[in-house]
Amino acid sequence: NAGVTQTPKFQVLKTGQSMTLQCAQDMNHEYMSWYRQDPGMGLRLIHYSVGAGITDQGEVPNGYNVSRSTTEDFPLRLLSAAPSQTSVYFCASSLDRGHSPLHFGNGTRLTVT
Amino acid sequence: AQSVTQLGSHVSVSEGALVLLRCNYSSSVPPYLFWYVQYPNQGLQLLLKYTTGATLVKGINGFEAEFKKSETSFHLTKPSAHMSDAAEYFCAVRGFGNEKLTFGTGTRLTIIP
Fold this sequence. Notes:
The complex is a heterodimer of chains A (113) and B (113).
Chain A: E1 4-7, E2 10-13, E3 19-25, E4 31-38, E5 42-51, E6 54-57, E7 64-66, E8 76-78, E9 87-94, E10 103-104, E11 108-112
Parallel strand pairs in A: 2-11
Antiparallel strand pairs in A: 1-3, 3-8, 4-5, 4-9, 5-6, 7-8, 9-10, 9-11
Chain B: E1 2-7, E2 10-14, E3 19-27, E4 31-38, E5 44-50, E6 56-58, E7 64-68, E8 73-78, E9 87-95, E10 102-103, E11 107-112
């Protein structure tokens, strides 16, 4: 099992560019989510999905879009990158939305100049 | 609403000494509580979780945590620190029926030889 796979590992963007961070899981997990990690702020939830075709906003959704067309994939789109979006992004999945733990990818380090 | 407070963004202990990382939570419904560990340049890994039942929870690598409802706490302990324990530790809460997992801001543990 590969678990949760994120690509790319590193990315540098210029202000105003758009891009998609990819996330795939092979565990047939129902729940998937995107977090951003910034120093001193822990992990903050951007968007999440409780199943294919269903997505919802977390606490910091502005500037990001998601879709969930399949159970396996949950891409995160930056529409027009801003320096404030410089961060480390983690995708995570869990079997359900209850007490099942999250399984994390290894992260994407994004720098916006 | 739910939230997590981790007291102490940095904790240093000597090798062989007790490790105590503090976590207090707020939840309007019964909580599921988690501790995760993050090693440099990696994603988060589950250390242990509390769902229901026994309030003392044992995890991997000799860590354990005790759920104290009256104190709304879920502190992480290890009797004897090892150099390999140096990492960042995150406490997280998900209220029963809540789809979102909320993280604390993290505690960086340093082990002094």
